[in-house]
Amino acid sequence: MRSLALFLCLIAGVYLWAAEAAPPPSLYHAELVSAIQQRHRITFVYGDERLDAEPHAYGLSKQEQPLLRAYVSAPSVAGSGEPAWLLFRVDRMSELTTQEQAFAAARPGYRRGDKAMSVIFAEY
Question: Where does 22-61 show beta strands of DSSP type E?
Answer without folding.
Answer: 40-46, 49-60
